[in-house]
Structure to design on (481 residues):
């Protein structure tokens, strides 16, 4: 083992009890977007204890923070992203492959952000120790990023200039395979549409009413027709926020619906969003109601920085996959077998595509990724999802790494993911991720040529500066999204 990796591994292993305890506590807190008070406090307390200087309430978000440690000249400046928000209605017992909520309807860590935040924390702590032990110039910043599952925070952080002086940023995400992420995620834009009408007795005087709920229904019809006339990669989603009451005999004088649109590029999202607004305008005209559109969230598309990917790919190969044992494989198989037959058939197709048909039975029997999948910049694939990490990637050179923390075929945003995020699978995965992130940081800081190439790649992508997809007037929607 390389001496640098040996050093980082020793530091992370020494701090593993503290890190895993933090994962399990944040998993238990399971706090929703913009309300991660206890989770943020725990992470900040560890950073402070470990000698990091803190900022709090960054970018106008109470649960957004940074932990910074500098040595010598403080150059280069390295960033590591941490997340810690949960998802609604996914409560589930830890490590239990039987669907059983801890509390019915309560939140749960269905995307593994408890592991993401604590694995990133372990990496930041290890880089700090490395700078001190080796008397290396540099700064390591842990960015505490709330609300990735909500309206996001990183676009507000980038707009506030928090990444302007950062030379490069690494992040990771809990996954089902071990690889430098080779995906191009969609850009996204979302807003609440508030319709106002006139209340009236729906039986006696319906002609005096103007239904805001009718306007919402007509907006949905219009958007359904719009779907035929947009690019196939685009998506339109909606959810009722306020249906205007529960009394059928009252013409609803208010109703609110939330729409989100996705496309591969942010300029396409902006164009499609304007068309959705026109549909809302038409619905208001047809119903003689008024509407207000309050734009609340927008993420720029994520693309990997290829210069950083080349370094991280080598580091991932060097660290290797998590060291699974027979108990881990048994647990993973139990979770895999909880999926219905139609989902399992889809999972089998994915296994064949990734590992080959000849390995299907082997993988089904031991469904944990135990290998490293090399990064290929010529095979970057568009995915339907979105992340505010994309905005960091347009403000500073940024790369995301995926590490297995769940069974092969696991479906994200599910009770199965919640259960596995507080289990030996997530524990081993997040500690592996910490080592990869830390090694990638110290390898990159010693390569000025890589940093320069990463910045040139960024400049080509953003034209020399970050442009937030949200206007300055849009503030973080702390209580409305």
């Amino acid at each position: 083992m390389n001496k640098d990796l040996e050093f980082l591994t020793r530091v992370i292993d020494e701090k593993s009890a503290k890190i895993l305890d933090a994962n399990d506590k944040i998993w238990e807190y399971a706090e929703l977007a913009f309300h991660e008070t206890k989770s943020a406090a725990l992470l900040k307390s560890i950073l402070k204890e470990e000698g990091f200087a803190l900022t709090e309430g960054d970018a106008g978000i109470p649960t957004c923070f940074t932990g910074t440690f500098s040595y010598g000249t403080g150059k280069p400046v390295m960033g590591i992203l941490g997340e810690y928000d949960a998802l609604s209605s996914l409560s589930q017992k830890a490590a239990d492959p039987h669907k059983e909520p801890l509390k019915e309807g309560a939140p749960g860590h269905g995307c593994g952000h408890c592991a993401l935040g604590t694995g990133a924390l372990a990496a930041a702590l290890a880089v700090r120790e490395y700078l001190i032990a080796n008397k290396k110039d540099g700064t390591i910043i842990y960015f505490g990023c709330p609300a990735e599952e909500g309206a996001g925070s990183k676009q507000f952080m980038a707009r506030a200039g928090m990444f302007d002086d950062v030379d490069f940023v690494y992040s990771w995400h809990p996954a089902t395979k071990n690889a430098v992420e080779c995906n191009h995620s969609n850009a996204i834009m979302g807003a609440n549409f508030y319709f106002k009408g006139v209340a009236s007795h729906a039986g006696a005087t319906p002609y005096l009413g103007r239904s805001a709920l009718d306007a919402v229904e007509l907006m949905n019809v219009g958007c359904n027709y719009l779907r035929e006339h947009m690019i196939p990669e685009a998506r339109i989603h909606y959810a009722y926020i306020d249906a205007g009451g529960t009394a059928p005999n009252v013409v609803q004088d208010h109703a609110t619906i939330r729409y989100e649109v996705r496309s591969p590029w942010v300029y396409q999202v902006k164009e499609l969003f304007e068309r959705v607004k026109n549909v809302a305008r038409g619905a208001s005209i047809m119903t003689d109601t008024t509407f207000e559109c309050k734009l609340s969230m927008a993420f720029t598309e994520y693309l990997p920085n290829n210069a950083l990917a080349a370094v991280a790919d080598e580091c991932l190969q060097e660290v290797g996959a998590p060291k699974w044992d027979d108990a881990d494989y048994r647990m993973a198989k139990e979770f895999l077998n909880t999926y219905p037959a139609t989902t399992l058939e889809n999972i089998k197709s994915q296994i064949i595509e990734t590992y080959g048909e000849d390995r299907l039975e082997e993988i089904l029997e031991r469904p944990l990724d135990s290998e490293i999948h090399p990064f290929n910049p010529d095979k970057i694939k568009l995915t339907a999802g979105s992340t505010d990490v994309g905005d960091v990637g347009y403000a500073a050179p940024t790369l995301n790494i995926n590490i297995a923390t769940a069974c092969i075929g696991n479906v994200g945003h599910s009770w199965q993911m919640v259960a596995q995020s507080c289990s030996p699978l997530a524990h081993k995965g997040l500690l592996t991720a910490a080592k990869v992130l830390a090694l990638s940081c110290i390898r990159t800081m010693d390569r000025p040529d890589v940093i320069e190439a990463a910045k040139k790649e960024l400049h080509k992508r953003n034209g020399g500066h970050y442009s937030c997809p949200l206007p300055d007037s849009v503030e973080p929607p702390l209580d409305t999204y």
